[in-house]
Each structure stands twice: as C-alpha cells, then as structure tokens.
Design a protein that fits this description.
Elements (H helix, E strand, L loop, with lengths): L2 H23 L9 H29 L4 H22 L6 H31 L3 H20 L5 H42 L8 H31 L1
Amino acid sequence: MSFEDYSRCISEFEGLLQKIAADITSGVIFERLPPTELWSRAEPLVSSLRSLAERLTESMMLLKPEKTPTIERCLEATVKPLDDFKEVLFQKSDDPLANSGIALEHLRRAMVKGSDLLQLAKAIKARPSEVIMKIMKFKEIYKTKDYISSIPVPEATHIRFMGLKKQLENLRFQISSLERALEELRAQLDAVQNEIARFRPTFTEATSEGESQKPGEESSRGTSPSIAKQSSLSEF
C-alpha cells in the first residue's frame, strides 16, 4: 500500500466510524429493534469496519514497525467488541430487546476503541519510520525510471517489433532444442567410444602354434651342412 492509499484508508475508516455512531449507536430506535433486525441493519457497516481496521493496521505496522505491539493491542480492543456485538445478538434470551441494548453497548465500546485506533493511525501518518519512507521513495523512483525509459513508437512499428520479438523467442527456443539434441548426441558418442575402448586384440590358436615351431625349424636348418659333410668323408 502506498502512502496515498494509507491516507485514503484513514479517511474511509474515520467516515465509517462517524456513520455507525450517527446511524446506529446514537439512535434510541435501534434499541427497540429485535436482535435479528438489528443485525441485518448493522451487519454491512460492522463487517466493513472490521475489514477496514485490519487493512489499516497492516499499513500502520508497515510504516511504523517499532509500534507493532501497540497497534496490535488497539486492533484487538476494536475488534473484540464487534465480535461481542454479534455474539450477544445471536444469543437466545427471554428478553430479546435486552440483548439488543447489551449488543449496542458493545458496539459503542468498539466505536471508542476505533477512535483510539484512528488517532494512532493519524500519528503514524504524521511521523512514519524514516527508513520505511526512504524505501518507499526509492521504489517510486524506480517505477518512474522504468516509465521514462520506455520509448513511444507508432502503432505499426510497435506491431512489427512485437512480431520480431516473437520470431526471436522462437529462434531462441529452437536453438535451445538444438543444443539439447547436440548434448544427447555427444553423450551417445562418448558411450560408443567407451564401449570401443573395452575391446583388445586376441591371438588365434593356429598363430600361437606356428610361432612355437619357429625355433625348431631354425635348428634343423643349422645342422644340415654338418650332416652333408660327414657323408662325404665316409665315401672317401
């Protein structure tokens, strides 16, 4: 709630207190009404007063946080007689008109406590928390800055810009989809590479046997010249 809204809420609350005091609590005629009829006439004003008091106190605690306990006590003192007013009117009694008189006394007490709440609201309006007011002022400045920073353009140009903006958003979405697809493809390639890295070369059985026979072949080849020499000497 802005400070202007808070001032407006104070004025509405004050006007509602005056209306209830003038129309209901000051008139003897309402004491002669049965409880059901008295409630039907007073209920809209009483409900509005309660709701407005709650909204007003919320703003009061925002503008003056250090006064929160006092504000809560004033609200409770105003709301409780309103609840008592309704409760008495709905009580069963052998003398309904007496209940109407008792209920109106509770309502008059609510008007007195409501006036105390009103005076406290006005005092907070006159001297709110300096820190809170600075924060609210900065907030208004930023709102004004955003408004000033916007550039007015012809409607046709604005429509074209909106179309271009939508195209850019679609392009950004497609790029994001493509990036996700590339990430998935990259993950699959990594998985294939990891699977290939698990394989290693193996030697067949025939190859291993051929390799084991090579030393024997070389030895046989090495003794053949000696055997030929011995045979030639025997002939001689």
